[in-house]
């Protein structure tokens, strides 16, 4: 599921727009269907949905599959992105360092575990403070 690994180090599998896309593509589980959101579906930065993203373009220019594998990492662009106000941006440097260490597929597996309800195992999303499936309070939502 490489579409869950953004070039910039975001884990798109925890984005409600990606969950909407998974639903549209029929790969969301019944538990994920219980999440309520008005977000538009997004197929991630390896799809046409994000063709204009600066990180997509820059990685294509550098011939890299992730900023983690770029010789300029951590460049000013990624440091600036990390410094933006949104909490889910603030983990990108740590995520990219982990991707550099273990590779994209193993990192996705780690992230799938990290973004699970501790009670029922349902997939959870950024900023989601309780599980939509079982109601469990999620303390590490960011
Ligand atoms: S220059 Fe920066 S933004 Fe561009 S691919 Fe390299 S690390 Fe990513
Ligand atoms: Zn749950």
Task: Tell me what you see in this structure.
With 142 residues, the chain is mainly alpha-helical. The protein has helices spanning 16-24, 54-62, 76-82, 92-102, 104-114. It has one domain (2-114). The chain contains five helices and no strands. The longest helix has 11 residues, at 92-102. 28% of the residues are buried. The structure holds iron/sulfur cluster (SF4) and zinc ion (ZN). Zinc ion (ZN) binds next to loops.
Helix content: 25-40%
Number of domains: 1
Q: Which structural class do the helices and strands define? A: mainly alpha
Number of strands: 0
As a whole number of angstroms, the C-alpha radius of gyration is: 15 Å
Average pLDDT for all residues: 91
- End-to-end Cα distance, whole Å, is 22 Å
Shape: globular
Compute the number of helices.
5
Helix/strand order: HHHHH
Q: Beta-sheet strand percentage?
A: under 5%
Largest sheet properties: none
Q: Spans of 5+ residues with little confidence (pLDDT < 50)?
A: none
Oligomer: single chain
Each distinct ligand: iron/sulfur cluster, zinc ion
Task: Describe the structure in brief.
This protein is mostly helical and 142 residues long. It contains five helices and no strands.
């Amino acid at each position: 599921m490489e579409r869950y690994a953004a070039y910039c180090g975001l884990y798109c599998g925890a984005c409600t727009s990606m969950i909407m896309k998974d639903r549209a593509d029929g790969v969301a589980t019944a538990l994920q269907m219980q999440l309520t959101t008005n977000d538009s579906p997004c197929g991630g930065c390896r799809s046409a949905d994000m063709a204009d993203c600066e990180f997509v373009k820059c990685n294509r220019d550098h011939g890299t599959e992730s900023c983690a594998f770029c010789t300029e990492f951590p460049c000013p662009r990624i440091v600036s992105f990390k410094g933006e106000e949104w909490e889910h941006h603030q983990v990108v440097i740590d995520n990219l360092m982990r991707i550099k260490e273990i590779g994209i597929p193993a990192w996705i597996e780690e992230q799938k575990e990290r973004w699970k309800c501790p009670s029922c195992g349902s997939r959870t999303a950024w900023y989601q403070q309780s599980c939509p499936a079982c109601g469990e309070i999620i303390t590490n939502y960011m």
